User: What shape does this take?
Amino acid sequence: MRKLIYTVRQSLRISVQNIITNKMRSFLTMLGIIIGVAAVIGLITLVQNATSSILGQFSELGAGTLSVSAPGTAMKQGLTDADLKTLMAVPGVKGVSPQVSGSTAAVYDFKVYDNVSVTGRNELYFAYNDVVESGRALNASDMSGNINVCLIDQDFRTNILKGTEAVGKTVRLNGAEYLIVGVQKQDNSLFSAYSDRSNLDGSVIIPYKNALTMSWNKNVTSLDIYVEDGASNADVEENLRETLDKIYNNTEGAYQIFNLDSLMDTMNTVSSMLSTMLGGIAGIALVVGGIGIMNMMLVSVSERTKEIGLRKALGAEPARIQTQFLLEAVILSIIGGLIGVLFGCLIALIGARLMDTPFAVSPSAIALGLGFSAAVGIIFGWAPARRASRLNPIDALRAE
Assistant: This one.
């Protein structure tokens, strides 16, 4: 055992000494490994971070939520209040929140603002979504259709109220006077970031019955279904379909149910495929680096032919010669891999900052990069090491 440890230690010392003696050649040999590992870690980490950010946005929006679009049929358009109560009684449903969207003009301080987005909601929307920054949310007593209250967003406060205190002020919407009871939080979600709101003066949320009246509609055509904790979105979706089929007499195309869980599963699959593809492309750089290591080691064997012949003549076993050259290749690969890890993390960090996504190092990518680099050292270093170990001592000593 001691002999083995001594042999490995001596082989390591000689390998490191040879690497240090040929600094430039060693660096150029490691360059392919550095680039390959940096590419593997950088690309995979960027993809995983970006995907995690996107899935997090979807999860926040759709965790425990189903979206229903119900334009209805020629005989029955939308959903009545009675239908909403029926949906509320579906097993697994803990809340139903209608959504009525439109636009109108707002009048404040004798000025008219033509582009104001209006969304009608009920009290359950605020119970399951933390959207109020100041003031209060809409409550059940506001849902009669005769109470004119609203919440405004940050754009409305900036563009129309000129940044002044909003709660308690009144504004005219579609000719009716509305009391501002709350201000919404800044929406920093992915969907808001990619929505074009440049032409809007602001947005308001009002009771959904008020929004129906404002849009000249009687029934709701869009709503969010909140699923009970522990209930399966898929099971609730199936129960909803049975109920909606009864409401619309099994008329095809009367409604659609959007389950974000299925979309998230698809995105996870795409992300895995993309990570695998990028890893494979970056792996090509590692293979190129491995070829460089093989080439350098073959040159090293040619340059050190006399040394090898002398060591074998003095009794060095072929296995020891092979171990020394193999260790040299592996050390080059591992050093290159470690440097590549640092550069890969730096690339991922810069990319995350530019893409405005959270940065998190991927342990799997690091393990893949280091493991691949070590494997490259062993695979591409084996042939030169074996060639060195099989040199004839007499022929080696005669070599110039």
